[in-house]
TrEMBL record:
Domain Mur ligase central: 95-280
InterPro entries per UniProt: Mur-like_cat_sf, Mur_ligase_C, Mur_ligase_C_dom_sf, Mur_ligase_cen, MurCDEF_CellWall_CoF430Synth, MurE/MurF_N, UDP-N-AcMur_synth
HAMAP family per UniProt: MurF
PANTHER family in the cross-refs: UDP-N-ACETYLMURAMOYL-TRIPEPTIDE--D-ALANYL-D-ALANINE LIGASE
Single GO MF descriptor: UDP-N-acetylmuramoyl-tripeptide-D-alanyl-D-alanine ligase activity
NCBIfam families: murF (TIGR01143)
Entry keywords, A to Z: ATP-binding, Cell cycle, Cell division, Cell shape, Cell wall biogenesis/degradation, Cytoplasm, Ligase, Nucleotide-binding, Peptidoglycan synthesis
One Pfam family of this chain: Mur_ligase_C
Presence of the UniProt keyword Cytoplasm in the record: yes
Species: freshwater metagenome
Domain Mur ligase C-terminal: 303-413
Membrane-crossing segments per the record: none
Name of the protein this chain belongs to: UDP-MurNAc-pentapeptide synthetase
Length: 428
């Protein structure tokens, strides 16, 4: 990293952050310019314990910390990620796909963590900021690092792989998410497949055999390939959901079979678990140990969170994000719940491009076919009861006199902020 040091050169840092609010003592502060200029928070970061910071400005002599003066802090962060990757001697697992990236990341962290000291991306840190920060914050003794990668155009995944140099890569699905940005599914597949092309010859590609565009990526690498799904190397059978949507199933693989009680809810998470199993066991973890660990993953918030109020109302909070595939999976989960009434509070699915109206209409038809009542927040195409905002949605829910035996699903793209509906229901 090309930087001019101002202040004590012999300073030790432990990790990095771009957020002065989340900074802990010993971390390097990286001021980025976005809606707000991170340089305005350097003094706060140092007061919170940062011994050093990057800066594109002349250092303030009143700030008692080492300044690393760079021309471009964002570029310096990416270079820092490359340096951090260089000290990681174990597995670096990268995950992408239109649906299921974060859940698969969480399950992979559990699977690899059953056998190796494992660090994984926080939240959905999956871009040119989150990926280098994940690497920079990996403990020195980490034996595996699990990273999520997103893309908003051709070349984005390749750029992230240039930072992370993954040794194992997983592609979950190629779907209609972000079609406004990509145009068509073939372009999505081209972008997502960059993760497979980045693998070294001794790498491992883990591909969903039930998605034709993902399955076709096996020709884009010289690395070893493992597939998962109904025709894959790693398969499931005898899938059963319990009363709280936790799947139980038997995994069959080249290494034998094992019983799994999955800690992530919804039948759709079985495929994500198979991907995690293929990656971890394919890299040498014992199948039975991995299967056991998948009962206790540390899951990211607002992904099929199951809660029951004191009155007996079940709330499914899947409000982190939404696209046509994940919407259908969530509706299937709601339909599988033993409930007297099933209501879905649905917000918009963003970035679907020209097919947006039809995609929303199809989700509404799916809900109707499953016997689910829809409260639509700002999207008439879903059908059901259309409201203008969250407060009005809550008003309609209160009119329904919800109680024991009823279940409510909350789901929308991130911009919708519908987790507030779930929070209000749980607060009573």
């Amino acid at each position: 990293m090309d930087a001019t040091v101002r202040g004590p050169a012999a300073v030790e840092v432990e990790g990095a952050t771009q957020d002065s609010r989340s900074l802990t003592t010993g971390m390097l502060f990286v001021p980025l310019v976005a809606a707000r200029d991170g340089h305005d928070f350097i003094a706060r970061a140092v007061a919170n314990g940062a011994p050093a910071y990057l800066t594109e400005r002349a250092p303030d002599p009143e700030v008692a910390a080492t300044a690393l003066v760079v021309r471009d802090a964002a570029l310096a962060l990416r270079q820092l990620g490359v340096l951090a990757r260089g000290r990681i001697k174990g597995h670096v697992v990268a995950i992408t796909g239109s649906v299921g990236k974060t859940s698969t990341k969480d399950l992979c962290a559990a699977a690899f963590g059953s056998h190796w000291r494992t660090h994984s991306s926080a939240k959905s840190f999956n871009n040119e900021i989150g990926v280098p920060l994940t690497l920079a914050n990996a403990p020195h003794d980490a034996e595996a690092v699990v990273i999520e990668m997103g893309a908003r155009g051709i070349g984005h995944i390749a750029e992230l792989c240039a930072i992370a140099s993954p040794s194992t890569a997983i592609v979950t699905t190629v779907g209609a998410a972000h079609l406004e940005l990509f145009g068509d599914l073939e372009t999505v597949a081209l972008a997502k497949g960059e993760i497979i092309e980045a693998l070294p010859i001794d790498g491992l590609a883990v591909l969903n055999s039930d998605d034709e565009l993902v399955y076709a990526m096996r020709t884009r690498t010289s690395a070893d390939v493992l597939t998962y799904g109904t025709r894959g190397d790693v398969r499931s059978r005898d899938v059963v959901l319990d009363a709280e949507l936790r799947p139980r199933f038997t995994v069959e693989s080249p290494w034998g079979s094992a019983s799994v009680v999955l800690g992530a809810r919804g039948a759709h998470n079985v495929a994500n678990a198979l991907a995690a199993i293929a990656a971890a066991v394919g890299r040498g973890a014992p199948l039975d140990v991995v299967a056991d660990a998948l009962a206790r993953p540390q899951l990211s918030p607002w992904r099929m969170e199951f809660a029951r109020t004191t009155s007996g109302l079940v709330v499914l909070n899947d409000a982190y994000n939404a696209n046509p595939v994940s919407m259908r999976a969530a509706l299937d989960g709601l339909a599988a719940l033993p409930a007297s009434r099933r209501i879905a509070v649905l917000g918009a699915m963003a970035e679907l491009g020209a097919g947006s109206i039809e995609a929303h209409r199809a989700v509404g038809e799916c809900a109707a076919a499953l016997g689910i009542e829809v409260i639509s927040v700002g999207v008439e195409q879903y059908g059901g009861t259309t409201v203008s905002g969250i407060d009005e949605a809550l008003g309609v829910l209160r009119e329904r006199c919800l109680g024991p035996g009823d279940a409510v699903l909350v789901k929308a793209s991130r911009i919708g902020g519908l987790e507030r509906v779930a929070a209000a229901l749980l607060a009573g």
